[in-house]
Amino acid sequence: MINLLPKQYKKDIKAGRTNLLLVRYNLLMIGALIFTLASMAILYFYLGNSKAGAELTIADNKTKVGEYAVVETKAAEFRSHLTTAKQILNQEVTYTKTVLQIAHLIPAGVVIDTLALDQKTFGTATVISAHCKTPEAATALKSSFQGSPLLSNVHFESITVNENDSTGYPYTVGLNITINKVAIQ
Description:
This protein is of the alpha+beta class and 185 residues long. The protein contains 4 helices and 4 strands; from the N terminus they run ααββαββα. Helices cover 61% and strands 18% of the residues. Strands 1-2-4-3 form a 4-stranded antiparallel sheet.
């Protein structure tokens, strides 16, 4: 086919096609711009709603923190009371434990007459009075006390004999001892 159109018409047809192509590109660009703007608007509203929800959560958490501050204060106070109680219990002396440990040290043939225990007794010289059947039992008592980590500075204060004793323990022994507080804890 031979194109017999004049050159001016050919240029106009070519320009028309180019214009149509440019119009299509412009429409495509406008469509892309509208899509981008719509996406940005949707994203803006979504982020605004998320921000509002997060601010509500923050406000709720602040009120809860205010409620928990009271609990935290009570917990700190309880911890301080526990620390005080622990210090008191560390200084506590169980007298029954001390008496039982001393009782295990007493050999056969010896009966303790007096043993005074109080807070002042520990670490200071104390006198124990005991009745013995024989003098050997008195020396065995002293040896038993000297071999114990519970007692220190053990020595006889007095030994007396009561020949009219009807109990079977005629020897009265006074032992000077020091009870170590460290040994009973």
